[in-house]
């Protein structure tokens, strides 16, 4: 239903003699409040960082802080491919859980068709896991 109430027509598709009062529903107020909050929080964070941030930058103030230790080496060091593979594997199996959760919520209502679909999905996920295991992607050296 739209947010504006419908006006009943009288007679030959004519409006009543008085102007109709259009009543807006208040169901979109939480969305509006969330949009205002989403704009206000970053603005506050930027304002506070500008207010309390360094006024006169120097070489010492611009240096990265590493837990009280003197910085060693460049910030753009090279990482092993294993880090990226581990991150990709985590994302793949995290997405698997995201697909399994809604199924777990309504599995009784889906019946055997839903069970078969989830069984196929889990079978393919296990095949992928076995492939990664066999290729050594889960070994950390």
Structural class: mainly alpha
- Overall pLDDT score: 79
- Main β-sheet, in a few words? none
Reading the helices and strands in chain order gives HHHH
The proportion of residues in beta strands is under 5%
Structure description:
58% of the residues lie in helices and 0% in strands. It is an all-alpha fold and 141 residues long. Helix 3 (81-105) runs antiparallel to helix 4. The protein is flat and about 70 Å long.
Topology:
Layout: H1 29-52, H2 59-62, H3 81-105, H4 107-135
Helix pairs in contact: 3-4
Main attributes?
single chain; 141 residues; mainly alpha; flat
Quick summary:
With 141 residues, this protein is mainly α. It contains 4 helices and no strands. 58% of the residues lie in helices and 0% in strands.
